[in-house]
Structures are given as structure tokens and as C-alpha cells.
């Protein structure tokens, strides 16, 4: 069952999928509708999941579930990954590749392979103050506090 993202408790589990490119406004509108439809019917062993989503910066898809009501299980997580894989094919993007880094360069959002980000750090093209998206956060509360942070406050700090 879909619920508004802001109604989820801070302990809600999240999954963050970053796109290899920015989605167009039309694509965001389509994805928005598809996500809502998927979450309306998302369940674990026949029990509806209280879930929500956000699309941020036309690049990130965040799916969240209130696990205190009903936890997502292996099968329900598999179905969400299959849904994301369908989006990848439909929009010709990578959403599951975790070997990329997305960060802010001024007002621009950059998306680079991890090796290239390391090289940029070595060359001082990015610094510990560069705002990165820490997609390793696990809950809505962590997402609110630690998703957009200076690189030196996330796992990216090892490169500086």
C-alpha cells in the first residue's frame, strides 16, 4: 500500500537506485506513475507493504518500506529489483551498478565510475568538501541526515 514518503517513520528501510543519467521531465512523470502503481500492489507473503518512494534530482529513485508494519522479505525484495530492472530496460539506464559515484559540482550533478572519482580526488578536482550522495544509508532517518554530505563525512573519505 502506497503512503506519502513524509508519513514513513525514520526507521523505515530504504533502497536507493542512482541513474547513470538524468531522467527527462516526461520520464520522471512516467516513472512516478509506475512506482506508485508498483507500490500499491507490493506485498510480502500476501500482506501489503506500507511503502513509498521519492524521485530526487531526476536521477535517484528511493523506495522505502515501514518494516514495523510488515517487513519486506526475500520475495518482495526480489520483485522490487525486478521492477527496477524493467525500468533500466525501458529507459536504457543503469540503476543497479554500485560502482559509480554521484556528487555535486556546483549546481550540476555528476555521475562517474568509482575509478574516475578516485582519480579526480587524487588530482584535487574534487575534495573532502565535495557534496556526495551516500547511497549506503539504510533508513529514512539516515537518508534525511546523511545522504547528501561532504565526502569526508561518508565512505568516500578514503579517497582523500
3D architecture notes:
By secondary structure, the protein is an alpha+beta fold. It has helices at residues 25-41, 74-91, 114-122, 140-146; strands spanning 13-18, 43-44, 47-48, 51-56, 60-65, 100-105, 108-113, 131-133, 148-150. The chain is 32% helix and 25% strand. The longest helix has 18 residues, at 74-91.
Task: Give the topology, please.
Elements (H helix, E strand, L loop, with lengths): L12 E6 L6 H17 L1 E2 L2 E2 L2 E6 L3 E6 L8 H18 L8 E6 L2 E6 H9 L8 E3 L6 H7 L1 E3 L10
Antiparallel strand pairs: 1-5, 2-3, 4-5, 6-7, 8-9
Quick structural overview:
This protein is of the alpha+beta class and 160 residues long. The chain contains 4 helices and 9 strands, in the order βαββββαββαβαβ.
Descriptive tags:
three-stranded antiparallel beta sheet, two-stranded antiparallel sheet, single chain, 4 helices, alpha+beta, globular, about 160 residues
* Helicity level: 25-40%
Approximate shape? globular
Compute the gyration radius: what is it? 16 Å
- If helices are DSSP runs of H or I spanning 4 or more residues, what is the number of helices? 4
Weakly predicted, low-confidence segments: none
How can the largest sheet be summarized? 3 strands, antiparallel
Beta-strand portion reads 25-35%
Instruction: Tell how many strands the DSSP assignment holds.
Output: 9
Distance between the termini: 43 Å
The secondary structure category is alpha+beta
What's the order of the H and E elements?
Answer: EHEEEEHEEHEHE
Strand line-up in the sheet with most strands: 1-5-4
Global mean pLDDT = 94
Amino acid at each position: 500500500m502506497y503512503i506519502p514518503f513524509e508519513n514513513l517513520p525514520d526507521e523505515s528501510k530504504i533502497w536507493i537506485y542512482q541513474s547513470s543519467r538524468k531522467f527527462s521531465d516526461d520520464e520522471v512523470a512516467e516513472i512516478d506513475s509506475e512506482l506508485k502503481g508498483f507500490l500499491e500492489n507490493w506485498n510480502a507473503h500476501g500482506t501489503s507493504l506500507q511503502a513509498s518512494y521519492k524521485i530526487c534530482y531526476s536521477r535517484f529513485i528511493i523506495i522505502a518500506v515501514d518494516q514495523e508494519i510488515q517487513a519486506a522479505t526475500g520475495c518482495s525484495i526480489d520483485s522490487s529489483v525486478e521492477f527496477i530492472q524493467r525500468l533500466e530496460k525501458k529507459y536504457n539506464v543503469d540503476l543497479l551498478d554500485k560502482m559509480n559515484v554521484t556528487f555535486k559540482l556546483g549546481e550540476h550533478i555528476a555521475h562517474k565510475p568509482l575509478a574516475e572519482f578516485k582519480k579526480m580526488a587524487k588530482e584535487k578536482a574534487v575534495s573532502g568538501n565535495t557534496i556526495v550522495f551516500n547511497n549506503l544509508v539504510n533508513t529514512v532517518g539516515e537518508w534525511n541526515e546523511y545522504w547528501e554530505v561532504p565526502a569526508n563525512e561518508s565512505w568516500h573519505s578514503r579517497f582523500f
